[in-house]
Amino acid sequence: MPVKDILLAAITVGLLTSGARAHELWFHPGAAGEHGLVRLSFGDSPDIGEAERVAEIAHTKVWADGRPLEVKRLPDGLEARLPDRRPGVVSAFADRGVVPYMGDSFIIYLAAYAQTRAIELGEATRLGLGDDQVRLLLISRPDGPPVVQAAWKGKPAADAAVKLFHGRGTPAEVRTDSRGEIPCPDLREGPWSLLVEVRDQTAGRRDGRDYSHIRYKATLAIGAEAAFGPSVAACLARVKEVHGASGPWAVAGYRIGERALKELGLPRQSHDLEVIHRCPAEVQFSCIADGVQAATGASPGKLNLRIEPARREDLRTVIRDKSSGRSLTFTLRPEFARSISDLPADRLEAEGRRVAALPDDVVFQVVESK
Q1: Minimal CA–CA distance to 220: which of 197, 189, 188?
Q2: What is the DSSP letter of 249?
Q3: First to last CA, the chain
Q4: I want to staple 246 with a disulfide (CB 3.0 to 4.6 A). Which of 135, 168, 236, 305 is the partner?
Q5: What tens digit of pLDDT does each residue of 244-298 get?
Q6: Taking Cα atoms as reference points, which of 238, 350, 337 lies closest to residue 280?
Q7: Domain ranges of the chain
Q8: Distance between CA atoms of 152 and 68, rounded to whole angstroms?
Q9: Hey, what CATH topology would domain 230-369 get?
Q10: Is 217:322 a contact under the CB 8 Å cutoff?
């Protein structure tokens, strides 16, 4: 057998064994409640509630578009503040050294990536960590939708098993093609976390300890922002946090509240806000109030948001600045209201995403009075 073939056989792309428990390095953009912060955890899954053993990743290095960031240690993970200009890729690297496990010893290198957008292939050189580590990135394509690409030492990681985590269910698993690529998951349903592993089966010795092989691991966190942009992603996330889901009526309410803050020049959570939502006592129409709450911070508990009974034809939301006396009355466009009325449950999330990206004047009309 030629030497080249022997070397290629010695370096294999490892499979991720479903039964084994293996801790990975995971990014959690915005997990601290601020879009300017990013967190890292160490655990079996991207569920931040399962994070543990932070000491093992204490020396992790983090970069934003290749520029190093200061890392702060927390009880359950690490935290880094992002620069004012939102980076396309945040990357991290942790060297776990030689790890003994069930009579074997091997080196583990952990890489992690988080993206707010798909990047050009040439941008993958500005990551901080070297290309000897596995790269798992969302790459744009001029002739089609973006793809997720796994690469190692500058070459595609072909036939690698990639696990896709979405929510708390069992992760799906797909294999990369000859270019190290898999189709991009539906980012409108984000966030997604992905995991890939590549193994170099060459044995060696490090720090006075023998090892049988090296495991290179990489995770990738991508969310709705990569599909929609930051404003739409924030809308969907806040509506879901308050309402439990991001259906079209609640999203329309968010859009109303967001526009009201802009027109009145008031910040979120302002005590000068007063919201009166007039609607029938039916779930579709009352959902608007939750969306307004998500956008403005007004709430029934603060006594500055209340719902008053009204007929369908009198559906409207009145938002007032108590200090200036300015008042805005919002009504949904009839054609828009018809488009989202009485939808089946399996269409609500998709319609919410559509509504989040519509222009204001397609969703509602607004009239000011004093």
Answers
A1: 197
A2: H
A3: 87
A4: 236
A5: 999 999 999 999 999 999 999 999 999 999 999 999 999 999 999 999 999 999 9
A6: 337
A7: 3-228, 230-369
A8: 22
A9: 60s Ribosomal Protein L30; Chain: A; (3.30.1330)
A10: no
